[in-house]
Each structure stands twice: as C-alpha cells, then as structure tokens.
Amino acid sequence: MNGTNYLSWNKNQHIPRYCGSCWAQGTTSAIADRFNIMNKLSTTTPVSIDAQVVVNAQAGGSCDGGNPGQVYQYAHDEGLVDGTCEQYVAYNLQAEISPITTCKDCTWPPPPAGEDGQDKCWAVTPAARYYISDYYSVRGADKMKAEIAANGPISCGIHVSDAFLAYDPTKNNGIYSEKVRFPMINHEISVTGYGYDEELKEGFWWGRNSWGTYWGIDGFFKMKMGGDGLGIETDCVAGLPTYTKPTEKNATQAIFTQ
What we know:
The structure is a single chain. By secondary structure, the chain is an alpha+beta fold. It has one domain (22-242): Cathepsin B, Chain A (Alpha-Beta Complex), CATH 3.90.70.10. It contains five helices and eleven strands; from the N terminus they run H-H-E-E-H-E-E-E-H-E-H-E-E-E-E-E. The chain has a seven-stranded mixed beta sheet with strand order 5-11-6-8-9-10-7, with helices on both faces. Strands 1-2 form a two-stranded antiparallel sheet. 41% of the residues are buried.
C-alpha cells in the first residue's frame, strides 16, 4: 500500500507432509497482515501468526480440513499466538492442547535419530495474544474491494480445480479464470488486494495461496474479478484485529479441505 509491504511471509501447508490446513493458513495469513497494518509495522519484525497452534487446538478442524469461520471465533475467544511459538509440522496433535503445544522452547543437545527431543522442551508464555474483536461475512466484488481498502486482506474460499492446481502465471497476464457451473468451495486463501489490467481491460484479485513460493507468482495468483473466478467472491470472512480480549460472538460455517 503506497509502496509499503504489510504482508507476513508466505507458507507451504504441505511441508514436511501433506496437510489440509488451508482453513488455518488463509485465515491466519489475513489476520497477521491486518495486525501489521494496524501496527504500521512498528513491531521488530512483521507479525506472523502460528497456523500449527490453530491445528493443534483443532480451532476449526485438522489436517483433514476445517472451518475458517471457527478460526476467527478462536481468535476472538482465546487469541492466536506468534508464528515462532511452534514449528509447523503439518501434523495433527495426538494429545490435548496445552501450554507446551501452544508455545515452547527447547535446549541442547539435538535428539538422536528417531527421538523427538521433547523431553528437553518446556512451555513459554507467548509474547502477545492476537485477538479479533469482530468478524463478519463479506460477499461480492464491491463489498470485498471496500473491505480490503478500509481494513486489509480478507480470507476467502475458492473452488480448486485440476486446472487451477497447474496455474501458469505467464498466460493471460497471470489472470486466471475458469467457467465452473456450480463452484464447490474446497480451499481457503487470502485475498490481499485487487487491480485492473489495462491491456486486457479486466479487473482481478490478488490472492495469496499456501502452497509455497514456487507455486504461481511467488505463492500469489491473480483471479478474474466479476465472474468465472472459482467462487472467490461468494464466501469471504474478515475480522478486526485487537490486543484486547473481546466478548463472545458466533462463527460462520463452511468446511474447506485442500
């Protein structure tokens, strides 16, 4: 925005193994970016929020898919933690969530092969809790643009097709479109902005995926605005960041698995 990059870093939800945690990745990505906007990048490093802790807490789902709206509810009720609190392991927690599975540190020496070394780790207090004071559904191009312009990135569901998996940013100036008669939302991404291609006379969304920076445009993609966009304008969620724990609110319902 005006030459300043407020984005947290891109991630790959499938490293070190396949994990259907898009519902946690797309939401925490958008929320972290909104904290960076709110803070005006005043923190020592840009805010990044830990998606593995969201999976550990089953705050909407697991590596088998989940509900993005419930991440906002968890952020509202419990608060999210910094991306340095837990290593992303792309794996479902095999025990109840606890302080050590929310934020920890470990010490020397490295464990022998075949051991996890968790006996040399201990729980630490997160430096901050990242809350959402209010969250709401956003649908339609005009409302999406207004929300992004006012408050920053939003998390949105899309219909991932085989063709989208093979997205080629060298075609059509990188703007992807596909006619799907009945889009079935199965993946969550973050919409970070929008633009207009003067050559094609076509508006587009800037989307951020969670499949690594080698995919698409360094992990990003452009999606056609106004139709044939894999349902990107039909099911989005946005939330307002705060460091103060708010009062209770209900979440939306949708299951995304990719």
